[in-house]
Structures are given as structure tokens and as C-alpha cells.
Amino acid sequence: MENLCKNYVIAIDGEAGTGKSTLAKNIAQKYGIVYMDTGAMYRCVTLDMLNNNVSIDDVDGISKILDNINIEMTNENGEDKFYLNSCDVTKKIREKQVNDMVSQVSHVPVVRQRMVELQRKLAKGKNIVMEGRDIGTNVFPNADVKIYLVASAEERAKRRFLQNKEKGIDIPFDEIYKNVVFRDNNDKNSNVAPLKKAEDAYEIDTTNYTLEEVENLVVSKIKEKIEL
Question: 10, 4, 27: which is closest to 201 by C-alpha?
Fold first, then answer.
């Protein structure tokens, strides 16, 4: 395991299904730093809204959810676990009802504001690799290393389909593909922290690369920016 100097932020942004989470986990393990899955945080908020029958238009209801929500991220026996108000929701936050709503929830201004505040708080004083859609442009615009991942919609849908299958989540490929295209449009055209490449980010099209090849490219960029 290699070690970085103190207080470095590696930001990995990009389209849904480009391999951000897996890449970030591997980088975190390689350098012994903290990994933060910001997408899972928004999924937890979405699940809490669903559990409490709070609609996307209910600003007061959403604010109450955010005032009382408790999100915890742990690693247990090599597996990332997510807890919502002390309940293990690792699998639930990946299910269809959350998938269908999370993009809209992440565009609610008060949700975005609160989650960004929490992400900055959790990262303070740590070496961290964080992935999402606006890490390098909004959450940490001064991140030491910025990576931006893209891939074809078909390839991303295929990856998500296979991931779901491995986790025992049964969602048809066509439905996943439509969701990927919908999320692209939502994320890139949002009025709240839209998905876009930071000017100083290194872009990688992962469509025809293996995860190992992408990781090697990213590691080379980290070594260019950070003295090991």
C-alpha cells in the first residue's frame, strides 16, 4: 500500500455507469485513503423520502427528512455497507424504486446543499477519493486531482445490468438503458450543479478500456500531481 501526503482530495466525476465507484474504491485501497460514494448518499435520502411518503415537490417534507437523517458508510469484511438511520440499506438503495427517483432528488436544491455540506465535513482533514457528478466542479473545485469518466450509453447500461445481476437485483436491460439516457439528460441539463467536466480534469472514455487499464491511467495522473 502506498501513502499520500496529508489532506489530498482526488475527485472522480462522470456519467452514470462509467465505473466511478469501482475505480474510486480501488484507488482508496491502493493508497490507504478514505473512499466516499456520494451517489449512495443521495440514494439514502431518496429511500428515506420513499419510506416516509415524501414527494419530490414537498420542500418542507424534504427539509424535515434532511434535518433528521443519519447516513453512515462502513466497510465490513471488504464489503461497503450503507446505513440509513441505523438500518442496513446496502441493497435497498440499489432497487428499482430508488433508481427511478434518485436523479430527480439529487436535483432538489436543498438536498444538494445539505449533501455538499456533509461531504465537505466528512472529508475535512482526510486524504480522500470522492466520486459523483460535481465533485471537481462544485464540492471540491480545488481538488488536487480531477478525473472525468465517459462511456457509451449502451456500454454503461450493460455494466449496470451485470452488476445488478451479481447482486440479485432483477431489472430488464431495456429499462436500465432508458434510465441511463434519462439520467444523462437530467444530470447534464440540471439547474443545480450539472454534470460537466472541470476545465482542469483529465477525461477518459472507458467504453473500450478494461477497469485495470483505466486505473493505470488514473494512477499515472495521480503521480503527476501528488508527490508520493
Answer: 10
pTM for the model:
0.82
Q: Of the candidates 125, 131, 144, 134, which has an alpha carbon nearest to the alpha carbon of residue 221?
A: 144
Q: How far apart are CA 222 and CA 118, in angstroms?
A: 25
pLDDT in tens, 81-93: 899 999 999 999 9
Strands 87-88 and 79-84: antiparallel
CA 221 to the chain's CA centroid: 20
State percent of the chain over pLDDT 90. 64
List the chain domain ranges: 9-219
Q: Which helix (H) or strand (E) holds 75?
A: strand 71-76
Q: Span 208-222, mean pLDDT?
A: 93
Q: What is the CATH number of domain 9-219?
A: 3.40.50.300
Which residue type, as a one-letter code, is found at position 204? I
Rounded Cα gap, residues 30 and 2, in angstroms = 6
For 96, the grid coordinates are 428499482
Strand partners, 72: 83
Percent of the chain surpassing pLDDT 70: 96
